[in-house]
TrEMBL record:
Transmembrane segments annotated in the record for this chain: 21-38, 53-70, 91-114
Membrane topology qualifier: Multi-pass membrane protein
Origin species: Reyranella aquatilis
Predominant place of localization: membrane
Source taxon at top rank: Bacteria
Function: Part of the tripartite ATP-independent periplasmic (TRAP) transport system.
Family statement drawn from the similarity comment of this UniProt entry: Belongs to the TRAP transporter small permease family.
UniProt keyword Membrane, yes or no: yes
Keywords from the named record: Cell inner membrane, Cell membrane, Membrane, Transmembrane, Transmembrane helix, Transport
Name the record gives this protein: TRAP transporter small permease protein
Cross-referenced InterPro entries: DctQ, TRAP_DctQ
Length: 184
């Protein structure tokens, strides 16, 4: 169990490191949106690639930060049963939810999106269509999808390990999760 807990800790570190890099995407997006708005207003210049980059930055942040949000327990939770279940009950609820919902959904989304990323990467597909003249490679945004869900699945495994450790009495629930019980 100690080896699994070290593995869970390593996953936490990976997702924390990814989040430290990705959060700069929010700043880059704000600068891009501001520059794009100012160039359209004062210079009458607009770039299709700038519009494309705006939503790609945002999508990258959302997809790649989901695992870190889950790690910090800042995701949306509906804990109407929290005050009735107690610590062990919440550990069971989290473990069942991770195993029956989170991990299968993540696996399915990685399975479905990974081939699309590979095809876009190998073919050199770009975002240029009739509606857009942007030539940003499509594989960039298509790569964020499997990467984001893979990171989320890894974080789910780390959380499942912690739930099992809690149920075995090896480790108490993390403090932020105990607040669900203590705030009754």
């Amino acid at each position: 169990m100690r080896t699994l807990l070290r593995f869970a800790h390593a996953i936490d570190g990976l997702n924390r490191t990814v989040s430290e890099f990705v959060r700069w995407g929010l700043l880059a997006n704000a600068v891009l949106i501001t520059a794009n708005a100012l160039s359209r207003k004062f210079l009458s210049l607009a770039w299709a690639s700038a519009f494309d980059l705006q939503w790609q930055f945002f999508a990258a942040v959302v997809l790649l930060m989901a695992a870190y949000t889950f790690q910090r327990d800042e995701h949306v939770r509906i804990d109407i049963l929290a005050d009735r279940l107690g610590e062990r009950g919440l550990a069971w609820l989290d473990l069942i939810g991770i195993c029956l919902v989170l991990l299968p959904v993540c696996a399915a989304l990685v399975w479905v999106s990974l081939p699309q990323f590979v095809i876009a990467f190998l073919s050199g597909e770009s975002r240029a269509t009739r509606e857009s003249t942007s030539h940003i490679p499509a594989w960039i945004i298509k790569g964020f999808i499997p990467a984001g869900f893979l990171l989320l699945a890894l974080q789910g495994i780390a959380e499942a390990v912690r739930c099992v450790a809690c149920l075995r009495g090896i480790l108490p629930r993390p403090m932020h999760r105990r607040r669900l019980i203590e705030d009754r």
